[in-house]
Structures are given as structure tokens and as C-alpha cells.
């Protein structure tokens, strides 16, 4: 009885999923929404990036599914509040080392998409992601939030934009973080990463059947946020 009511309470916690390719704006929007409503934020991409970074540090090959899955299951990760209130991003600690910046490089993004193709790696990270669902609610950002991790989410949004526009945004974003990159290089990484994410056998990047798809190519971030707030307020 007791367990039943805990489960019931757990299912009642609202989840909003934001899926889409890299550079579609979901990270910024997810962080803004979490701050606006004071909800928990899951940046699931960070978990794949952390797995890739830890693998590179420990010399684990990026095609070794079993070793990567063991690593993913035992990752010692902490997300801490960034004391700098102007930063939307939380601090990411891997075995107590601040890797907030290290996981954001394009190289780690590409490496993350390589480890993310493996079912066992995805399984190893699944419970960790589900544990982010706490009251009063969760904003979940990723590739398979609405399709696999939180299929019964109350509102599912799929953000997309042209690859050229996403590459431009990524260059700007990385520059703001002090990471210098070239546009043609980023565009080719984005295309390679899209192809890997969309064509993999497990949990490929696709909009959930019941997702609201928003193309942000011609939209500013404030406009996208406004549109999503309207959706949230209409749905809740
Ligand atoms: O969103 P972000 O760029 O941080 O994600 C890095 C990579 O992690 C993606 O390209 C994708 O391969 C993988 N990923 C995933 N499923 C998620 C989130 C990220 O496969 N839910």
C-alpha cells in the first residue's frame, strides 16, 4: 500500500521533455524553463559526454561496449549549483574534478555520440536519468527523453533547426566559453553527429509521435521560449 502510494506520487510528478539535435537551442531553453518554474533539470547529454571524457582519461576504447557500460554505471558524477548566478549551466564534477568546460568541446560531443550508440551504455545511464524526476517537476533535455526515458511525459517538445544555423550557433556558444573553433569544422562535426544520432539502432533521434515540433531556424531564443511557455501554460 505504502509503496503503491509512493509510486502514484512519483507518476504524478510532471515532466517536460525537450529533444532535438545539437544546436537546436534545447539546452538554453531547458535551463531557462527550469529556472523559471524552479524545476529539476536533466541535461542527459552531459552524462554521455562524461562517459566519453572518462573513457578517454582511462584509455578505454570508444568501441568497447562492455567496458564503456561498466564505466557509465560507475561514473562518480555530481551536478552542483553554479555560484555565478548569470550562468545558466550547473557545474559538472567528475570524481570531484571540475569538468564543466572540458565536456563541452566539440571533440567530446563527437566522442559522446560514439559511446551513445551502445544499448548497454544507454541502459547503464537509464536509472540515473529517471532519478532526476523529483517534485515539483522535471525539464529533461536530450535525444530520447520523450521516446525512451520519459515516454509518459506531460508535454514533449522536439526542437530542430537547419544544420547551417545550428553550426553558427555552436560556434558562437563555444566562443562565449572561450573555446575557439572554425565554422566549416563544426558544420562537418554536426552533420556527422546528426547522422550517427539519427541512424543508430537504439534510441535514435526522432520526434516522439506526440511531440510538438518547433523549427527554430528563423527564431530567436526569446521567441522559442515564449512559444514553449504558451504550450506549457495551455497544457498544465
Ligand atoms: O546534447 P549533447 O550535445 O550534449 O549530447 C552529446 C551526445 O550525446 C549526442 O550527440 C548524442 O549522441 C548523445 N545523447 C544521446 N541521448 C541523449 C542525450 C545525448 O544519445 N538523451
What does this structure look like?
The structure is a single chain. The chain is an alpha/beta fold and 236 residues long. It is built from 10 helices and 8 strands. It has a single domain (13-231), classed as 3-Layer(aba) Sandwich (Rossmann fold), CATH 3.40.50.300. The protein has helices at 2-12, 26-37, 44-57, 65-74, 106-115, 119-130, 145-149, 163-176, 183-199, 221-235; strands at residues 15-19, 40-43, 77-80, 91-94, 97-98, 138-142, 155-160, 212-215. 38% of the residues are buried. It binds cytidine-5'-monophosphate. Residues 22, 44-45, 48-49, 109, 112-113, 116, 142-144, 193, 197 line the site of cytidine-5'-monophosphate.
Give the uncertain stretches in residue-range form: none
The structural class is: alpha/beta
| Major sheet size, sense and barrel closure | 5 strands, parallel
Shape type: globular
Number of helices: 10
Termini Cα gap: 28 Å
| Structural domains: how many | 1
CATH H-level homologous superfamily name: P-loop containing nucleotide triphosphate hydrolases
Q: Quick one: how many beta strands?
A: 8
Stated plainly, the CATH topology is called Rossmann fold
Amino acid at each position: 500500500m505504502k509503496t503503491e502510494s509512493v509510486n502514484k506520487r512519483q507518476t504524478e510528478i510532471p515532466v517536460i521533455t525537450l529533444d532535438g539535435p545539437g544546436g537546436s537551442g534545447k539546452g538554453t531553453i531547458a535551463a531557462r524553463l527550469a529556472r523559471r518554474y524552479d524545476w529539476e533539470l536533466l541535461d542527459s547529454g552531459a552524462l554521455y559526454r562524461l562517459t566519453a571524457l572518462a573513457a578517454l582519461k582511462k584509455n578505454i576504447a570508444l568501441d568497447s561496449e562492455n567496458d564503456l557500460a561498466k564505466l557509465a554505471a560507475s561514473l562518480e558524477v555530481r551536478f552542483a549549483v553554479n555560484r555565478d548566478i548569470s550562468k545558466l549551466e550547473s557545474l559538472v564534477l567528475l570524481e570531484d574534478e571540475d569538468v564543466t568546460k572540458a565536456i563541452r568541446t566539440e571533440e567530446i560531443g563527437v566522442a559522446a555520440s560514439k559511446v551513445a550508440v551502445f544499448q548497454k551504455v544507454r541502459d547503464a545511464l537509464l536509472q540515473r536519468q529517471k532519478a532526476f524526476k523529483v517534485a515539483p517537476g522535471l525539464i529533461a533535455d536530450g535525444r530520447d527523453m520523450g521516446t525512451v526515458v520519459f515516454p509518459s511525459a506531460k508535454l514533449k517538445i522536439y526542437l530542430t533547426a537547419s544544420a547551417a544555423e545550428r553550426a553558427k550557433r555552436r560556434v558562437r556558444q563555444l566562443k562565449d566559453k572561450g573555446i575557439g573553433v572554425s565554422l566549416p569544422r563544426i558544420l562537418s562535426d554536426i552533420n556527422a553527429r546528426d547522422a550517427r544520432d539519427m541512424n543508430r539502432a537504439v534510441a535514435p533521434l526522432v520526434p516522439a509521435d506526440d511531440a510538438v515540433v518547433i523549427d527554430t531556424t528563423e527564431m530567436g531564443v526569446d521567441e522559442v521560449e515564449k512559444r514553449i511557455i504558451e504550450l506549457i501554460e495551455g497544457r498544465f
